[in-house]
Amino acid sequence: DVTNGQGVRDQLARIPRLDVLVNNAGINIPESFVDVTEAHLDRILGLNVRAAFLVSQAAVRRMLDEPQRKARGGVVIHMSSQMGHVGAVNRTAYCMSKHAVVTISECLHHDLTEAGARVKASVLCPAYVPTAISESERNRPALLREDGTSTLMSQQFRSGFEVAAECSIPPPPPPGALPYTHAIGTEPQRA
User: Fold this and answer.
1) Which residues are designated catalytic?
2) Which of 3, 46, 98, 178 is most buried when burial is the number of CB atoms within 10 A of its CB?
3) Global confidence as pTM
4) By three-state DSSP, how is residue 59 classified?
5) Alpha helices by DSSP H, the chain
6) Sign of torsion, CA 97 41 157 151?
7) Contacts of 29 (CB under 8 A, 6+ apart)
8) Nearest to residue 82, comparing CAs of 46, 122, 128, 28?
9) Separation of alpha carbons 154 and 39, rounded Å
10) In what order do the strands lie in the sheet with 119-124?
11) Residues 10-49: tens digit of each pLDDT
């Protein structure tokens, strides 16, 4: 459970060596701004923001404590979203959380650079990637199943092209092309 800070620290302590962290846990509960419940907001911010922060903090502390770090280096990669740069209908809480992930990454980058650490931070901001997880009920929290919002999420998604048409960003790459990436200190670009 990446939302449990002590549990994360305990798990990381069991790993003999840590060089790379890919922070990829996240959730989206599509709702209009006025319909977002406190429970949904807490769930989204807890997993997308708080867990990203706590896992990264624990991993970076662990990396910096390793005696050979200066020789090896290390990296923290956060998975955000194009929604970390734009807004969209029924995505207020999600967009807010993904913007926070971009900010966590940028601040971590600056802190590590200022400290002269060989640990680096980066963030990826892909557009929507249709996968089976969009239709999976396996990991859906009970609160979503109980309140009737557990319909297949793929029915609620609009394509990246539809979202981009409403935003001041270039459209996403065509199917089969690589998604957008965002390296700290640069403008978003296609990989």
Assistant:
1) 94
2) 98
3) 0.70
4) helix
5) 5-14, 38-45, 51-65, 69-72, 92-114, 142-146, 160-165
6) positive
7) 36, 40, 43, 44, 93, 94, 144, 149
8) 128
9) 22
10) 20-23, 74-79, 119-124
11) 999 998 889 999 999 999 999 999 999 999 999 999 999 9
**Separation of alpha carbons 87 and 29, rounded Å:** 14
Residue 68 corresponds to which amino acid?
Q
Residue 76 β-bridge partners: 21, 121
Angstrom distance (rounded) from CA 34 to CA 30: 12
Q: What is the pLDDT of residues 68-123, one digit of tens each?
A: 888 888 999 999 998 888 888 999 999 999 999 999 999 999 999 999 898 999 99
What whole-number distance in Å separates Cα of residue 125 and Cα of residue 180? 6
Distance CA 71, CA 50 (A): 31
Question: Residue 2 CA to chain centroid, in angstroms?
Answer: 13
The strand pairing partners of 143, in sequence order, are: none
In the numeric block, the tokens 């029924």 are attached to 90
> How far is Cα 88 from Cα 135, in angstroms, rounded to an integer?
21
Q: Residue 165 phi/psi, 5° resolution?
A: -65, -25
Count of beta carbons in the 10 Å neighbourhood of residue 163: 22
